[in-house]
């Protein structure tokens, strides 16, 4: 009997590679390139930890399916929800937000709040796009780690306060 894990380990060394994909699509990191996919997967995990750290009693829902018209996270704090969309750039240039319109259209219809988290770069063009669609119901911020937690906290809390029924 052959140990399949040993066989899988030896297969690349022996030169016998299977053609086609080796992992199911559901386990494959999302994104457009492998480098960006790895960065996006790591960034989503860091954002998840930050949300749990900043709002320990909140509920955090993850959207595991890749779609352009749904946000990556839903953060529910004190009965109020804020959608969190993460965007990863591999270079520190401008972030124009070209992938945001389907999500913005849906949130505009639903009346939801949105925070777009960018790992690096200049979000000015994206801020203009988001402001044109959602107005003051959305924020675009650069969050690169725990050092930027106060910015994330302020953005989400301002939206939660805004969505409050009481003045």
End-to-end distance: 71 Å
Number of strands: 5
Query: What is the name of the CATH architecture?
Result: 3-Layer(aba) Sandwich
Sequence stretches where pLDDT stays below 50 over 5 or more residues: 21-29
Discrete helix count: 5
| Beta-strand residue fraction | 15-25%
One letter per element, helices H and strands E, the order comes to HHEEEHEHEH
Largest sheet: 5 strands, mixed
In short:
This protein is α/β, with parallel strands linked by helices and 167 residues long. It has helices at 4-14, 34-54, 101-110, 124-134, 149-162, and strands at residues 59-62, 73-77, 80-87, 114-118, 138-142. Residues 21-29 have low confidence and may be disordered.
Structural description of this entry:
The chain has 167 residues and is α/β, with parallel strands linked by helices. The protein has a single domain, classed as Trna Endonuclease, Chain: A, domain 1, CATH 3.40.1350. The protein is 40% helix and 16% strand. It has five helices and five strands, in the order H-H-E-E-E-H-E-H-E-H. Strands 1-2-3-4-5 form a five-stranded mixed β-sheet, with helices on both faces. Strand 2 and strand 3 form a beta hairpin. Helix 3 runs parallel beside helix 4 (124-134). The longest helix has 21 residues, at 34-54. The chain is globular. The termini are far apart.
Layout: helices, strands, pairs:
Elements: H1 4-14, H2 34-54, E1 59-62, E2 73-77, E3 80-87, H3 101-110, E4 114-118, H4 124-134, E5 138-142, H5 149-162
Parallel strand pairs: 3-4, 4-5
Antiparallel strand pairs: 1-2, 2-3
């Amino acid at each position: 009997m052959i140990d399949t894990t040993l066989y899988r380990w030896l297969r690349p060394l022996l030169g016998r590679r299977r053609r086609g994909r080796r992992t199911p699509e559901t386990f494959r990191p999302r994104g457009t390139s492998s480098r960006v996919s790895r960065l996006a997967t790591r960034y989503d995990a860091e954002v998840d930890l930050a949300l749990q750290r900043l709002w320990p009693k909140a509920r955090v829902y993850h959207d595991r399916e890749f779609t352009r018209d749904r946000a990556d996270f839903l953060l529910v704090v004190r009965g109020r929800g804020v959608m969190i969309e993460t965007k990863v750039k591999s270079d520190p240039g401008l972030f124009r937000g070209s992938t945001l319109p389907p999500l913005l259209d849906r949130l505009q219809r639903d009346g939801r709040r949105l925070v777009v988290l960018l790992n690096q770069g200049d979000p000015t063009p994206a801020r203009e796009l988001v402001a044109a669609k959602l107005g003051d119901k959305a924020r675009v911020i650069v969050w690169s780690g725990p050092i930027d937690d106060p910015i994330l906290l302020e953005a989400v809390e301002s939206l939660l306060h805004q969505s409050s029924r009481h003045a």
